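USER: My hope is that you can spare some time for a protein that puzzles me. I am handing you a single protein, as its sequence and its fold in token form. Walk me, if you will, through where the backbone shape changes along the chain. The protein I mean follows directly.
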Amino acid sequence: MFNNNEQFVLGFIIIIYFVFLLIMSLYIKRNIKTYDDYNMASRTVSVIPLILTFVGTGVGGATLLGYMENGYTLGMGQQWIHITMISAVIILALFFLKRIRLLGEKYNMVTIGDYTALRYGESARIPTVISFLFAYCAMTGMQFVAIASILNLTLGLNMTVGIILGWVLLTIKTYLGGLKAVIWQDVIQGTILTVGIIVLFFVVIYYSGGWSEVQANAINQNQNDMLDFLNITPNEILIYLLTLAFYQFIRQDVWQRIWAAKNLKTARNGYWISMIIAVILGAMTVLIGVYSKFGLNLDITETPLVYYHVIQEVFPFPLVVVMIMVLLAAVISSADSFFIAGASSIANDIIKPNVKISSQKKMLLYSKVSVLIVSVISLILSLMIPGLVNLMVTGTAMSVSGLLAPVVFGLFWQRPTKIAGNISMWSGLGSAVIWQILGHPFGIHPILVGLPLSIIMLLVVTFLSKKDEATI
């Protein structure tokens, strides 16, 4: 895909980019003195950094590589990913965000495990942590795969070597700076990827000749159904809704940023603006995939490489280098956010309650160790589960199955009991994991087993058990 001279240039730029991020993490590390600094960015984040870190986290490697490939191979029906997503964003912003923020302020929360423990007792921390480790380790591993694909295509590195190299570099960077470094690096990376995707979108439209040209080409190829928004099965829409969309309600990285904002107004404005931007960028990537097939008329057999073929088709090599940086920014800005969210669960919900540590410095050390634990689990998953979007859907399905019902019901309804919450978590998570291991019997996705069972158990046990005294 790239000749030797181009590979040398790309390799040099990629190395410089990683060195820059490492130096920035080292610089920010000097101001990280406490557990709150590392995990919550001192709870003082203003609106612009908050917007850009939300965007950086929401638009990752799966967006540029996975969604663009889906647009190329499956067509406009893939926009349902973003239709379901914006629906979830609106619900969270209107009904959840204020409640989440006020609870976080009142109880100085760091993780969703703090909430479930308060609502359903300390025993609820364990299924909460397990659910999040499934999701965040899978999503972090997805970014390792994305980095490996970049290194494979640009430098010719073996995929396994690329995954391990990405693992090492991202682990070091996240270990050094925690959430504070993640957010301030996202100011840069969120800007890069936002501008880059928008520019690419309009350049592709320009070279494609507009939608009428795309329609004509699709008709000529007898694939006009690819341009239909309804070119997707109801089951696929349901899976996107229950996994990628509903997961927004229980995303620990989202809750942490809501708590890290300096006040409620900042949290609300930052979330609204950033999520609108993120959904628009995601929709643009699917459109770029569609336009590349029927506008640019690219014949691509290895569809995971759609992004690379598109940028080489419409840009000269110097701008191709820039677009590789856009892709790296998208991947890295998501990976380190997932890292710190998963690590916070281990440090805050496993180590802190059991070791009974009061020292901020000790907890800071354990937070860094937790980053290493998450990195190893994520590495294993990235080597075991193929497919970027599949990896993300698998992780989110486990988390939604275990946590969505007890968290959402618990936020707005006092009746669910502690025992009901715990049974709901374990039954939803356990059944989804077993269904995944069995290979989706009868073609039924694990989320369609785990989530209904979790809801049923929550309601049945609640009405059969004695009402607890309200804790929140």
Observations:
- DSSP finds 18 helices and no strands in the chain.
